[in-house]
Amino acid sequence: MRSLQTRLSTGLIVSLIILFSLQWLIVSRSIRSLTEGYIESRLRHDSEGLLAAINPAKENAPLTLNQGRVDLIYNRPFSGHYYLIRSDDHLLSSRSLWDYDLPIPDVSVGETRRLYSPGPGGQNLLLLVNGFNKQDRPVIIAVAEDLSEIEVDIRHFQLIYGAVSLAILVVLIIIQRLIIGVGLAPLKKVRGDITSLEKGDIHHLREEVPGEIRPLIREINHLLETMTERMQRSRKALGNLAHALKTPLTLLTQLSDREEIRNCPEIRHHLIEHTGTLRNLLERELRRARLAGTPRPGQQIVLETEIRYLLDALKKIYKDKALEIRYSIPPGGILSGDREDMLELLGNLLDNACKWARGKVSLTVEKDNGISFCIEDDGPGCPDDELTRLSQRGVRIDESAAGHGLGLAIVRDIVDQYSGEIAFGRSEDLGGFKVSVRLPAQGASR
To answer: Strand 360-368 to strand 421-426: parallel, antiparallel, or no bridges (unpaired)?
Structure first.
């Protein structure tokens, strides 16, 4: 669908073009009609003058015309002004016609006909034919005038008027584009607010917008509040459930240390195993609930700052190993997403690498159309057959490979939540375990 600005501009431009075209056509026809109406009134006046200039004649005598009462323009050859007078079989024509035969229709007494007719030299004549009664004799008087010069003037007027109308049309189009741009400027502010909302700079959209879109903004804000409330209720309910389950699990764990249980090693083994599994699953689901999102739709994460914080913490935790942790981060590395999610993802991967590394851990961050993390260590790694299973979507990582348990399960959950990709392998440089994670551009917006 085209943008609102394009649709409005197109509609207004088409409307203006149609309006100005109709205006040009109406004005042109009005000018022609007024001009021809004026010529017709003059021809009617000339017809009456010619009728008065006819000399009285006896019955069956030919008509004669008093030339002294006839305008001189009718005596100049091809002047563009012509007349014909016909009574019975007698015909009088203006000298201006010379020898040109101008056909005229028959009309009855009192009848008037207006028509266009070709004239001498290709002239376009407006012909007015009137029927009169002179001395009880029917007389037909036809008076014509050349419209060629008038048509040239009309075309000249149409050209000038069209050029002026076109200039006005262009100015109006520019003005209406500016008006539409100003009118739609609040939508650009809304788009900026949505971007800020995605980045986490604001928590709701401003409602200082035009009345037409204010209901939409209010619905969006209401939706954000509803989602936040539901998420908080879900977290609270899950947290309450987890705390409620921790007490029975603690009691079951203590029960396994009782003497009568110790005397049944097989029962004690199954009890410890299942309570441990329940504890891990409980911790996993609690973390998954936290991954459901935060009240802030997005944040700007400065990768170098956060990674340095993680590495300092890990060096203190594994100070006995004296690990060499190398990292490579592109300049200006900023990621849009939830800070806690990213710290959870990198923290689990780096903690897993530090746990199994013999002395070296490597972190590489790359940015293209998204962002990629690669964590490697020089530890024992993971068997190739288990690596294949780890890469299969839907396989529970905490049950797939010993030593790469709940932490990697949480990582897979985060990557899935952000529509990313994760791959496991063996490090070519360090020889140990390798995890590659790629998150799409703005994937953290979810």
So the answer is: unpaired
Picking from 31, 91, 24, 20, the residue whose alpha carbon sits closest to that of residue 62 is 91
Do residues 285 and 309 share a domain?
no
Question: Rounded to whole angstroms, how far apart are CA atoms 388 and 383?
Answer: 9
* Pair 41, 74 in one domain: yes
Distance CA 446, CA 437 (A): 17
Query: Using N-to-C axis directions, what is the helix angle for 303-317 and 339-356, rounded to 10°?
Result: 40
Same-domain status, 276 and 253:
yes
- Residue 235 has which token pair? 């977290």
Residue 179 lies in a domain: no
In a domain, 190, yes or no: no
The answer to whether 64 and 54 have CB atoms below 8 angstroms apart is: yes
Q: Indicate if 244 and 304 belong to the same structural domain.
A: no
28-38: pLDDT as tens digits: 899 989 998 99
Write the pLDDT tens digit of every residue in 230-248: 777 776 777 677 767 777 7
Burial of 224 (0-12, 13-18, 19+ CB in 10 A): middle
Please check whether residues 251 and 147 belong to one and the same domain.
Answer: no
Half-sphere exposure of 20 (CA within 13 A, CB side): 20
Domain boundary, last residue among 108, 133, 152: 152
What is the rounded CA–CA span in Å between residue 130 and residue 116? Answer: 15
Closest among 191, 199, 181, 183 to 220, alpha carbons compared: 191
Pairing of strands 360-368, 324-328: parallel
Say yes or no: 31 and 94 in one domain: yes
d(CA 285, CA 235): 10
Model pLDDT, residue 25: 92
Please count the CA atoms within 13 angstroms of the CA of 332 that sit on its side-chain side: 2
> CA-CA distance, 123 to 322, in Å (whole number)?
111
Q: What is the pTM of this model?
A: 0.48
Cα separation, 351 vs 408, whole angstroms: 10
Q: How far apart are CA 67 and CA 289, in angstroms?
A: 115
Cα–Cα distance, 237 to 247 (Å, whole number):
16
Determine contact, residues 31/151, Cβ cutoff 8 Å: no
Secondary structure (DSSP) of 174-209: HHHHHHHHHHTHHHHHHHHHHHHHHHTS-SS----S
CA dihedral 375, 380, 385, 388 (to 10 degrees): 0
Show the domain range for 275: 214-290
- Show which of 233, 256, 290 is a domain's final residue: 290
